[in-house]
Design goal:
Length: 189
């Protein structure tokens, strides 16, 4: 009886082994390049930038700007105008930056940071008369520079605007984080 059970088990195992090998060999080797694998969130789609619906009003001298630190080595002061900050459906955070020198000279730009590609773009700058926007200075998307002394764009990207290649939140939450100096590293739990 034991011999019969052992023979039946061996026969069943042999049938499973042969059918398993047949199933494996039926697909055969492929020439598919597995190195071309791309994660879903890393796939490049047909990105379309939202049309700029107009420029924000220029920040006045008495505007309540939101200052942020860039470098201890820079004498310049950097601040964002909260009234201009928007988060578009295209994943671009647009804002007005005010850069002030120790002598009081101001440079005012309207820019955008694209979170999914670590790029920035200038839409307009303060004109020569200091009473309006100059859109002739607009540029195309450029990679954000990390190592420069006044790398305010990388600071905004990493600390306030973007995480995981997406905007961290809607505009009101980003404004609150800037107002209270809550950077992404301090928000990690």
């Amino acid at each position: 009886m034991k011999r019969f059970a052992l023979a039946a088990a061996c026969a069943a195992g042999g049938v499973l082994l042969v059918s398993g090998l047949a199933a494996c060999s039926s697909s055969g080797p492929t020439n598919k390049d597995d190195s071309a694998f791309v994660y879903l969130l890393d796939r490049k789609g047909e990105w379309q930038e939202n049309k700029l619906e107009g420029l924000p009003t220029l920040p006045q001298a008495d505007a309540k700007l939101l200052p942020f630190d860039v470098s201890n080595n820079s004498p310049l002061k950097f601040a964002v105008d909260p009234a201009s900050l928007t988060v578009g459906t295209d994943g671009v955070v647009r804002y007005t930056i005010v850069i002030t020198s120790p002598s009081g000279a101001r440079n005012v730009n309207y820019e955008g940071i694209r979170c999914d590609t670590y790029e920035w773009r200038l839409y307009a700058s303060l004109d020569a008369d200091h009473n309006g926007w100059d859109q002739t200075v607009a540029n195309n998307w450029s990679r954000i520079e990390n190592g420069t002394l006044n790398a305010y764009r990388s600071r905004l990207y990493q600390d306030y605007f973007c995480a995981n290649k997406m905007p961290v939140a809607k505009a009101p939450a980003i404004i609150e984080n800037l107002r209270y100096g809550r950077t992404q590293s301090t928000l990690v739990r």
